[in-house]
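ARCHIVE CARD
Drawer: 12
Card no.: 0347
Subject: one protein chain, sequence and derived structure
Cross-reference: see card 0346
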Amino acid sequence: MSKYWLCVTTEENWNIIKDKKIWAVKEKDLKKLDKVAIGDPLVFYVKQRAIEDKIFGPKIGGICMVDSKSFKDSTRVFTNPPAQEKFVYRVNIQPIIANAELDFKTIVPKLKFIKNKKKWFLSLQVAMRRIPKEDYDLITSLAPTLLKKWAVNLLEKTDRGLC
């Protein structure tokens, strides 16, 4: 049975995650990463960012499926932090929906994992967290239909041990 995860990242690192097909956390989050299983979906929350004078709101960037057990790799790939690589605990991932581009603020009122709707951002001050299947279903329901069907079929196969 799949567990559903929300992963918090920056726009720069989201692009690296998609390109390298890895998700990584710092040592303090290793216990959470070790609970992730092959086949679990990861929903990527991309933080709000400013480019020059324009502010881009937070979004769901995409959804990927875990493709490996966790492992340690100190190879530098991420932009933050600027010093040595700190995101060394990793899993390989495969894209389900690579470019969801879903405005996060519009779905906050419907998300069950966010208890305080006025201060919703407090629920996202982590590297990753489990989310209820209902929240995952809501997010995928707002994704493009063709990709959604593919993701649901793949998850059903994984849950039945066919992948």
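Annotation on reverse: The two ends are 13 Å apart (CA to CA). The chain has a mean pLDDT of 84.
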